[in-house]
Specification:
The complex is a heterotrimer of chains A (about 300), B (about 300) and C (about 575).
Chain A (H helix, E strand, L loop, with lengths): L1 H14 L7 E2 L2 E2 L3 H10 L6 H14 L12 H36 L4 H15 L2 H15 L18 H38 L3 H8 L4 H23 L1 H6 L2 H6 L5 H10 L3 H29 L1 H5 L1
Antiparallel strand pairs in A: 1-2
Helix pairs in contact in A: 1-13, 4-5, 4-7, 4-9, 4-13, 5-7, 6-7, 7-9, 8-9, 9-13, 12-13
Chain B lengths: L21 H10 L2 H23 L34 H37 L1 H16 L2 H11 L4 H11 L3 H14 L3 H8 L4 H37 L11 H8 L8 H32 L4
Chain C lengths: L2 H19 L18 E6 L14 H10 L4 E2 L11 E2 L2 E7 L4 E6 L13 H11 L9 H4 L2 E8 L2 E6 L6 H7 L6 H4 L11 H4 L7 E7 L3 E6 L12 E6 L3 H9 L5 E3 L3 H8 L4 E3 L2 E11 L2 E2 L2 E5 L6 H9 L3 H9 L3 E3 L22 H10 L12 E2 L2 E2 L1 E7 L3 H15 L4 E7 L1 H9 L5 E7 L6 H6 L1 H5 L12 H11 L4 H18 L2 E9 L1 E4 L34 H7 L1
Parallel strand pairs in C: 1-10, 1-11, 19-20, 19-21
Antiparallel strand pairs in C: 2-3, 4-5, 5-7, 6-7, 8-9, 9-10, 11-23, 12-23, 13-21, 13-22, 14-15, 16-22, 17-18
Helix pairs in contact in C: 10-12, 17-18
Classes of the chains: A mainly alpha (about 300), B mainly alpha (about 300), C alpha+beta (about 575).
């Protein structure tokens, strides 16, 4: 499956028009001699089939090639960018999952009440906001108007001169706004989803049984229905793994967070073939891992699946 | 226990009020839901304005730049209720022009994605076994490829893109998630009691799928789909950076965002109003979808 | 289970804790010894710098950093003259021999690399060999080909041998190349200098050293306290990668950044209004033009059905009120381009009479060419065909994407339909190179000298598929004038010939010369900036200083901490 994804990506990026050796828009066209040397350096003067075979051969060994833009190994480039994105997206995912499930369950337990309606309307509005718009608003409010948080980057520029505690706080402060942007949106989405999933489950027999036993409504929701209703949410979380990996390009751009999103976007634009395909390959691996985790969680939560 | 005939098995959720189909019951419930009706009204107003305005306004109201020196970047005022943009174009006029394009693209592409994804996922989830594995592995492979890559590649082969192209491209690159969701739900539902009962009573696979399982799937898909609509409008803005979006001078809410962000935040009205249009639309769609879902859920509560 | 509430309470109190904690983050403070020395400067750049190995530099942002870490043999003087007035850098003095075809430099014996080794003439020879090596791919390679060779007369005397005389000899030899150390670079693979060990820890002779390099985030330079000339005043300079313009403006306003170059008139206006920032507008070298393809892209041996005719090209130029278009978009951040030159170029003739804005004249010309507006329609037609053409525009340039919309509307009012074809930058360049376009919104960073014009506008540049004359403009008169200018014996003569070349090309209108950008650096007021050189506002950073009374906390961190952190 990884193989298919990688091959497809290889085909697609080579299909796209444009050449990595083009110069810049204020200096279009590269010196022909230089271009020729670069092309043979990266094996781009051979036929597509030959390149593909070499690529597969390299991948099997674990060599992802060299990024054309950076001149450094793809694995090195990805190795730097990926953890940064994982930190950001991981934090956002955990925050939004926890808050979203909790909020959705809280709403379902009080369905139809005023509180439920207000919360529902709010998460509806919030979930419709575009992420870069929200990011910009947060940036303006919390950096420009109220200087509470730094405006971007992973750490401050004077990070090295801080004490260890100061460094930790510096990191957290820089993580706050970008992950909050994503988490707010994620919470609203998951809350709505979770509430809907819970309401789907509530009419079922086992729930009615619990109710008949005299269990309070809230407990019905939290303990009995939630386990079943977590299934679609887990699937949703599993589905978001490719996005997780790809990073939120807009949020990374607004907050100058040098992660996978920015890296991948720049790689596409520059037709940096090795980096693009390497990114896709890594993405495929993560999706597979995500699928496995989702299946495990699914089995843990849904006894019927286990029984099979 | 009610007696049943072998040719027409009846299960509780097949019986509606006065013998009408469950879908009709749902629609009637929907009509009684005030917030859903509000959403429908809002959408209706937007649609009417979008369709009618070109018929009554001067030919170039979308693209005319009256005075690029003196009338550019004017904040909301009496003459221009939503202000003017950097090309001195009236923002309200642009919003109306953009409505047609953005709404069409958003709704149609999500419809395409939801339909394709549901069919694919339902088949995979219901059939199970090796076919299921193969189908889902294919989807996983496609999911692993960054959507941007797919968009660029497809747009390359198909140049210029046009609105139809844009709709199809967005739809055909967005169905993977839906299919996985549907597949999981269908796979779970396959083991439910009433499905087993229906099968025992001789119901065919297709009937089981359509009548028993799909209604369960509609709610989550609806929620996922409506979220997708807002997503698509935003993606549309991003496509402009790739050169695949709506080309000037035509308007879309996405391209208005792209234009407006250049001078943000001092010239805030273009982005804010384009964003507001987006939010209002998505809200309206979600209200309708919520109402629809609740109406369908009400139908599912067993009568016993 | 009251999880949600607890979660929210937890979040709130955590935020409060963080905000309180950052009020005292325990920086070590060391005061600087000298009242003038000390301070920090954070400059925002919009692209990811990657590396600063001088021969492999392709982007302007890389020059911002490289100019602090490396030095040339001599710098262009304040007046910007290309033949005189240079300020000594690695070379103390120079002299001419053999009727000005040999240039001899006398290097400063005290010059040292950051690792302590002395700077030698052999370093210059190696640098020249790198700059002219196609495997390295320096954009300066072509102009430097006019230098035959560089030899070493003794350890402090590099000698430049020219094939013939031309006005910018001194500029090419002394100022184009940033000298790199032979002992550190000689063994690095030339085809991949950006990935070499030297790239990761560069050794230069400039007044700043690279202290820390965080890929894609920031490059931190610290002052070289043992520099052979006077040390730079500032303690550290950080070049931070800020990709989003709105974020850059926000952080500049919040005081997180000290300096940036602003390309956007609204941002410039907002920032200039802030009391703590000082802004200025300088001439710069970038200009853009709407280039016509004079050949039919589908049948390259035939002239373009529309643009093969000079009358049509002039009519299109006359139809545009360029002054209004440029003012609308840029206010004062750009001016109307005169031709393939900018005001910042020493040899530019700024008195060239361009094709004037004359919409009535344009209409008359178009009518006479057969393009008339049919009754009830808005676009001109000739023999049933509408007057329509497409323009390719790179999406990455915000300014061009905006400008083309203004141009589009202006032409529509004249009955001309312009179709915008927005393309990703690499695709855009690909189409340019293949000459597959009707019109292209092209742009260039002008050469300080006139050498770049050959590739862009001469007959040779057109015939050569690797030249940059993408529109295939061919005029032997222009070629002759340009040749004379490039081989003139003095700057004055060169200017005279160049003037005639410009008159010719502007009258031919192979492109609509649209706008010439101006450089608009915005710097925090506490920094006392030296005179800024047009086209390179950052060049004098080593002489900038911050009066001790105006320093902010981050200025006072001092050097010892940075050294300990390495």
């Amino acid at each position: 499956m990884i193989f298919i994804a990688a091959s497809l990506s290889f085909a697609l990026i080579h299909l796209a028009p444009g050449d990595p050796f083009s110069g810049s828009i204020t200096s279009p066209g590269l010196d022909p001699e230089t271009a020729r040397i670069r092309r043979s350096q990266y094996g781009l003067d051979r036929s597509l089939l030959q390149q593909y075979v070499t690529f597969i051969g390299n991948v099997v060994v674990g060599n992802l090639g060299q990024s054309i833009r950076h001149g450094r190994p793809v694995s090195e480039v990805l190795g730097i960018a990926l953890p940064r994105t994982l930190l950001l997206m991981g934090t956002a995912l955990i925050l939004s999952f926890a808050a979203g499930v909790a909020l959705g369950a809280w709403q379902a337990a009080r369905r139809g009440s005023r509180a439920d309606r207000v919360a529902g309307a709010t998460s509806l509005v919030v979930a419709s906001l575009p992420e870069f718009w929200l990011g910009l608003v947060l940036l303006l409010v919390f950096t420009y108007k109220l200087p509470l948080f730094p405006g971007g980057g992973i750490v401050g520029y004077m990070h090295d001169s801080l004490s260890p505690v100061g460094q930790l706080i510096d990191r957290v402060r820089h993580l706050a706004l970008p992950s909050l942007t994503l988490a707010v949106l994620g919470t609203a989405t998951i809350a709505r989803f979770q509430r809907a999933a819970l309401l789907d489950v509530l009419p079922h027999d086992f729930v009615r049984t619990a109710r008949a036993k005299g269990v309070a409504e809230r407990w019905v929701v939290y303990r009995h229905a939630l386990r079943n209703a977590l299934v679609p949410t887990i699937v949703l979380a599993g589905l978001s793994l490719p996005t997780l990996f790809g990073g939120a390009v807009f949020v990374e751009s607004v907050f100058s967070w040098p992660g996978m999103g920015l890296e991948a976007a720049a790689a596409f634009a520059a037709r940096d073939y090795p980096l693009v395909v390497g990114t896709a390959l890594l993405g495929a691996v993560i999706v597979v891992i995500g699928g496995m985790i989702t299946d495990v969680l699914h089995a843990a939560v849904d006894p019927r699946v286990r029984a099979r | 226990m009610t007696s049943v005939s072998l040719s027409q098995p009846q299960v509780a959720d097949d019986v509606g009020v006065g013998g009408s189909s469950p879908w009709e019951t749902a629609l009637r419930a929907l009509a009684r839901d005030r917030s859903a009706m509000l959403g429908l009204v809002v959408l209706g107003v937007i649609a009417v304005v979008a369709i009618v305005t070109p018929l009554i306004a001067p030919g170039d109201y979308c693209i005319a730049q009256p005075d690029i020196i003196r009338l550019k970047n004017i904040p909301p005022s009496a003459a221009h209720p939503l202000g003017t943009d950097k090309f001195s174009r009236d923002v309200l006029a642009r919003l109306i022009c953009g409505a047609r394009v953005s709404l069409a693209i958003a709704f149609l592409s999500v419809l395409v994605a939801a339909t394709v994804g549901t069919i694919y996922g339902a088949i995979a989830g219901y059939v199970g076994g090796i076919a299921d594995s193969v189908l889902m592995r294919a989807v996983d492979a496609l999911l692993a490829i960054p959507r941007v890559l797919l968009l660029i590649a497809v747009a390359t082969l198909w140049n210029p893109l046009g609105i139809t192209g844009l709709v199809l491209v967005l739809g055909l690159t967005g169905w993977f998630g839906v299919s996985r969701l549907v597949r999981t739900l269908v796979a779970s539902a396959r083991h439910d009691d009433f499905v087993a009962a229906a099968r025992a009573l001789g119901a065919g696979d297709v009937r089981i799928l359509v009548h028993h399982i799909l209604p369960r799937v509609v709610s989550p898909v609806l929620v996922a789909g409506t979220l997708g609509i807002g997503n698509v409008i935003v993606i549309e803005a991003g496509l402009t950076y790739l050169g695949m979006g709506v080309q000037p001078p035509h308007a879309s809410w996405g391209s208005m965002f792209y234009d407006g962000i250049e001078y943000f935040p001092s010239v805030w009205w273009v982005c804010v109003f384009a964003g507001a249009a987006l939010v209002v639309t998505v809200l309206a769609v979600n209200l309708v979808a919520d109402g629809l879902r609740e109406a369908l859920d009400a139908r599912q509560l067993p009568a016993r | 289970m009251t999880a949600p509430l607890t979660m929210r309470q937890l979040t709130r109190s955590t935020v409060a804790l963080l905000v309180a904690a950052t009020a005292c983050d325990g920086t070590t403070r060391t005061t600087s010894e000298d009242a003038l020395t000390g301070g920090s400067l954070i400059v925002a750049v919009s692209t990811d710098i990657g590396h600063i190995v001088p021969p492999a530099i392709v982007q302007v942002d890389q020059r911002l950093v490289a100019d602090q870490v490396f030095e040339p043999l001599a710098w262009v003087g304040d007046e910007g003259r290309l033949d005189d007035g240079f300020r000594p850098a690695l070379a103390d003095s120079w002299s001419w021999e053999a009727d000005s075809t040999v240039l001899v430099f006398h290097m400063n014996p005290a010059a040292r690399w950051h690792d302590g080794k002395p700077v030698r003439a052999s370093d210059v020879r190696l640098t020249f060999s790198l700059y002219t090596d196609p495997a390295v791919g320096s954009p300066d390679r072509q102009p430097l080909m006019r230098i035959d060779s560089v030899t070493v007369r003794d350890s402090l005397t590099p000698v430049f041998w020219f094939g013939s005389r031309y006005p910018e000899q001194l500029f090419d030899a002394a100022a184009r190349m940033l000298i790199v150390p032979e002992h550190a670079v000689a063994n690095e693979p030339r085809a991949n200098l950006p990935a070499s060990a030297f790239a990761r820890s560069p050794i230069g002779s400039g007044r700043f050293r690279v202290a820390k390099w965080d890929p894609k985030t920031a490059v931190e330079l610290v002052t070289d306290t043992t520099h052979y000339r006077r040390r730079a005043n500032l303690d550290r300079v950080i070049f931070a990668h800020i990709p989003d313009p709105t974020a850059m403006v926000t952080r500049l306003s919040a005081g997180e950044l000290d300096a940036a170059e602003i390309l956007n008139s609204e941002h410039f206006r907002t920032l200039s209004a802030r009391p703590e920032l000082s802004s200025r507008i300088l001439p710069a070298l970038d200009y853009t033009f709407l280039q016509f393809n004079l050949r039919d892209p589908r049948q390259p041996n035939r002239p373009h059905p529309l643009f093969g005719d000079v009358a049509m090209r002039r009519a299109l130029t006359m139809a545009l009120d360029r002054d209004r278009l440029v003012r609308s978009q840029f206010d004062s951040l750009a001016r109307v381009a005169l031709g393939p030159m900018t005001h910042a170029q020493a040899l530019a003739d700024t008195t060239v009479a361009g094709v004037p804005f004359d919409s009535a004249g344009a209409a008359r010309t178009l009518d006479s060419l057969g393009w008339k507006i049919p009754v009830g329609k808005a676009i001109r037609e000739r023999a049933g065909q509408p007057l329509r053409f497409s323009v390719i525009v790179p999406t990455i340039s915000r300014n061009r994407m905006s400008m083309i919309v203004r141009v589009q509307e202006a032409l529509r009012l004249q009955g001309i339909e312009l179709v915008v074809d927005a393309l990703e930058p690499n695709v855009f360049i690909g189409r340019l190179v293949k000459r597959d376009f009707d019109a292209a919104f092209n742009g260039t960073r002008a050469e300080v000298s006139l050498a770049g014009l050959q590739s862009y506008w001469t007959t040779n540049g057109a015939a050569d598929p690797t030249g940059r004359n993408f529109g295939s403009y061919q005029n032997p008169v222009f070629d002759a004038h340009l040749d004379s200018a490039l081989s003139a014996r003095s700057i004055a003569q060169a200017r005279a010939h160049a003037s005639e070349a410009f008159e010719t090309i502007v009258a031919d209108a192979p492109a609509v010369w649209l706008y010439e950008m101006r450089s608009a650096p915005v710097v925090h007021k506490r920094l006392r900036t030296a005179h800024m050189i047009p086209g390179a506002w950052w060049a004098g950073i080593a002489d900038w200083s911050i009066p001790s009374g105006e320093r902010i906390p981050r200025d006072q961190i001092g050097l010892r901490v940075a050294a300990a952190a390495k």
